[in-house]
Amino acid sequence: AARKKSGYELQTLTSWLLRQEMKGEIDTELTIVMSSIAMACKQIASLVQRAGISNLTGVQGAVNIQGEDQKKLDVVSNEVFSNCLRSSGRTGIIASEEEDVPVAVEESYSGNYVVVFDPLDGSSNIDAAVSTGSIFGIYSPNDECIVEDSDDISALGSEEQRCIVNVCQPGSNLLAAGYCMYSSSVIFVLTLGKGVFAFTLDPMYGEFVLTQENIEIPKSGKIYSFNEGNYQMWDENLKKYIDDLKDPGPSGKPYSARYIGSLVGDFHRTLLYGGIYGYPRDAKSKNGKLRLLYECAPMSFIVEQAGGKGSDGHQRVLDIQPTEIHQRVPLYIGSKDEVDKLEKYLA
Ligand code: P6P
User: Fold this and answer.
1) pLDDT digits over 189-212, tens only?
2) Which of 99, 116, 174, 283 could cross-link 233 (Cys pair, CB 3.0–4.6 Å)?
3) Can you give the residue ranges of the Fructose-1-6-bisphosphatase class I N-terminal domain (predicted)?
4) Whose CA is nearest to atom 5 of ligand 1?
C-alpha cells in the first residue's frame, strides 16, 4: 500500500541534490562538490554571524592581489572554502578572489572539477553587519581552452599555465553556479542549468531547506541599483539613462533607488523583485570594479536561468572569453526589459 504521507514533505539541499542525481541531472562527483560548497557556506554563515563576538571583524593587516585590505573574515572564509573543496576529493583546480593564481588540488582523486569563487563578497560590510555573500561557479576541466597567448602566461610553468587555461573559460561553459547570502536569513541560491532554486538555512538543525523552485525574475521592474556616487565619472549616455529613470513620466512614479554595496544582497533583491543592478565602467576604472570569473559570470548564469539578462553594456557576459583570472568587466544585470533598455542608451 502507498506509504501514508505525513504531508511534511521537507526537501533539504542534500535530498534535493540526491534527487537531481537520481534523475541524471548531475553526476555523483558534482553532487559531492555541491555538498562541500554548502558545508563551506554554513561554516561561513556561522563565522559571519558571530564576527563581533569572536573578534573576527576588522582588517587582517594584509592586502590581496586586488589591492584591497583583506578583512580577517576574507582570509578565514577563503580557507574554509578551499578546505571544503579540497576534502571533497572531486575538485581539480580552484580559483579564488583571495588567491593570486589558481591552484591545482593535490587531494583530487576523481571528478576534478574547476571551481571559481569569491568566498566573502562585500566583506567591507561585515563590521556594520550588512548582508554579505559567497559566490561560486563550477566548470568541467578544459585543457583545450584557448586563452590568448599573453606574455605573462607563457612565462609561467606548464602546471600553472594548465591551471589558468582551465579556469579561463567563458561563463557559457558553466555547469553550475550559485551564491549564499548571509543576511536576515541565510539563503543558498543555485542553478544546475535547469532553473534557479533557493534554500533557506534552518538554524534549528543546520540544514538548507528548499524554499523557492524555478525562480523567475520579473520581466521588468522599476528599481535601479547603482552607486550614484560615481555619477560624475560615468559616460554621458549612462548619465542620460540614469536621469531618465528619475523622470516621473506619465505614471507620476520614477524608479526607486536601492543600493547596499554588496553584490549578493543587491542581486538577490533584483532577482526576486525585478529591476536592474549596474556596476559601470567609469573614468577611474575603465572596466568597472566587478570580476568576470567569480562574480559577473556566475550571477549572469543564474539570472539567465531565471529569464533575465546579464550584460557588460554591449554583449552577453556569458559570451566573454576571460584572458586573465581577476579580469574586471562592467556589469548590468536583472530584468530583461531593463537591461535591454540600458543597452539601447549605451549603443
Ligand atoms: P562600491 C563589494 O566590495 C563589491 O565587490 C560588491 O559586492 C559590491 O556590489 C561593490 O563592490 C560595491 O562597490 O564601489 O559601490 O562600494
Assistant:
1) 999 999 999 999 999 989 999 999
2) 283
3) 12-213
4) 122
